[in-house]
Amino acid sequence: MPDYFKMVNGTSVNVSEDGHGFTKIAYFEEPYYLLVIYCVALSLIFVASLVGNVLTCIVIYYDRTMHTATNYYLFNLAVSDLLVTFPILIFIYQILSGSALLEFEYGKMTCKFIICVHFMVVTILWNNGILVMTVLSIERYIAICYPMMLKGTPVWRRVGKIIAIIWVIALLEALVEAFYTMDVYDTGNNLICFLIPNALSKLLTAIMAVVTFIVPLGIMTFVYTMIAFKVNNNNPKYHFKDTVLNNGSNRNKVNKLITLTVSFVICWLPYFLIRVILVVVDTDNFSRTDQYWSPAHKIAMFNCWFAAALNPLLFSLMSTKFRKALKKLWERRVKKRNVLTEKSFSNTLQTSRITKMGI
């Protein structure tokens, strides 16, 4: 059984086919100016995501006309994107400082706990995002094709239960991956947590990749195909009166959701492909492909966070109603407050002048 030796932060690490000695694949040093450019791009994504998602949440929360099932799901997506945005700062620090991403010195249980939290944050939010998109597609399909099915249940009660279930499922999926596909290896200098390249971990990774990506993507593709067929069908039997099929806004909503879904898939595809490679590539071959893992990892992480900035941007640009609601909110709350402040300040000055004249 051939062994391979790599350097991880100056420490010789044994990498073997059976996976028991497999640890972190060595990241080759890259030119510092490229790392700076990469971090600047991540910083721009951080700002765009922070501003876009906060505005999305504020508009949906304060404007009652935005309290629809679709917007409740998008509010949940915006919260998820906000949460996944903050680890960007940690990632930037690790890149520029050269600190190890997955190294710990305080024991195996501490190591597993920290990596569990670190790994689960991104995984939960990814799972939550793809599940939200799947539920959104099904919700729109029912609303467009079978509108009477959703009339009996209050919107918030139905959507609230579904969102809660989505978060629970996302958490359970992340727990399985964190505890059963990760392990700790001792390099002699420190402890490193990494994906276990054994049969069980590969099987679980493959199952989770299918469950959290392939299956939802298949559902969304099927549902949107059916929606497009229903909306664009010229058969007179679909053109009945007082149905949402004759409402032009539904086509805009469908186009918006399709665009959001496609952008989500494109942004998260590199991360999914990395997981697939970890499943299908033999451990023996990792030693000959390690030079590709650093750029592949950076591209995958960049795309993940780019999705968090892109979602609110698409939602704002594609929705005239959202832009109007944002403008109305700005005029009513921000401008009005400034006007009141100016009036109060003016009245104070006038009172002060009158008092002085009286004296």
TrEMBL record:
GO terms for molecular function: G protein-coupled receptor activity. Its main location: membrane. It is a multi-pass membrane protein. Residues 52-315 form the G-protein coupled receptors family 1 profile domain. GO terms for cellular component: plasma membrane. InterPro entries: GPCR_Rhodpsn, GPCR_Rhodpsn_7TM. Keywords: G-protein coupled receptor, Membrane, Receptor, Transducer, Transmembrane, Transmembrane helix. The chain crosses the membrane at residues 32-61, 73-93, 113-138, 159-180, 200-227, 257-279, 299-318. It holds the Pfam family 7tm_1. It is found in: Membrane. It comes from the Eukaryota. SUPFAM superfamilies: Family A G protein-coupled receptor-like. Belongs to the G-protein coupled receptor 1 family. This is Neuropeptides capa receptor-like isoform X2. The lineage of its organism: Eukaryota, Metazoa, Ecdysozoa, Arthropoda, Hexapoda. The gene is LOC113497781.
